[in-house]
Amino acid sequence: MASSVKFPRKLRPLVLPTLALAVLGGAFVGYANYAILQRQKGRVFSNVATVPAREVALVLGANPLTSGGQPNLHFAYRIEAAAALFHAGKVRHLLVSGDNHHRDYDEPTAMKNALIARGVPAAAITCDYAGFRTLDSVVRAHKVFGLRSFTIVSQGYHTARALEIARVHDLDAIAFRSRDVPNAFSLRTRVREVLARADTMLDLHVWHRGPRFPGPHEPIRLARK
Question: Could you read off the pLDDT of 178-216 as tens digits, one per residue?
Fold first, then answer.
């Protein structure tokens, strides 16, 4: 017969509380993912022809290169989607928001340059250099850049969390999903997103966290039609 697992006497009182915490933690992660994904149904679009028009799109940042130095498909597909929205007349301006925590790492400028290469005028692009997290990007779109209604651009698995942040902050946001990255190149990111949704629920409803840099106010001025 297989022998049962025996814990050191001093650790035995901790076994049941640890197991209980693990079960509760898993249940919370499951609830957070279910709630966020369910609430965003009908607000995510994948066809340029059917997505409602908005004045501005918020393009969520990504590193243009992978850790191995190869082109990052998450970045490339978001740029492709944002440019498609602009050229179809579905948005008039693009707010590119990403991380620029040191001189040699500048997601917003890389996004802007990639969009210009796809024919988007520089005057139709605004950079948010303090989009360190999805929460920062979405909340700063309102607090700093004066937007209440906008289209979020990212991969489908990511847009649900961004839309939840917008919903809690009473912002009128929809999402345009870029092409999905094959699982071979995105599995780790997708797994991390499952945990990120739970973390976002805590940020929104328990910790009430805001952006790392909340200002100053710099409203986007759209060119006249």
Answer: 999 998 889 999 999 999 999 999 999 999 999 999 989
Q: Within a 13 Å sphere around the CA of 16, how many CA atoms are in the beta-carbon half? A: 2
Closest to 145 measured CA to CA, from 82, 94, 109, 80: 94
Q: Which ranges in 61-203 belong to alpha helices (H)?
A: 73-87, 107-117, 134-143, 156-168, 183-202
Helix (H) or strand (E) holding 38: helix 12-39
* 65 DSSP β-pair partners: 71
Structure tokens given for 24:
């509760």
- Spacing of C-alpha 105 from chain mean position: 18
Cα distance between residue 134 and residue 116, in whole Å: 23
**Per-residue model confidence (pLDDT) at position 6:** 63
Q: Which amino acid type is present at position 136? A: D
User: How does strand 44-45 pair with strand 172-177?
Assistant: parallel
CA 9 to chain centre: 46
Asked if 163 and 40 touch (Cβ cutoff 8 Å), the reply is yes
pLDDT digits (tens, 9 = 90+) for 60-113: 999 999 988 999 999 999 999 999 999 999 999 999 999 998 878 999 999 999
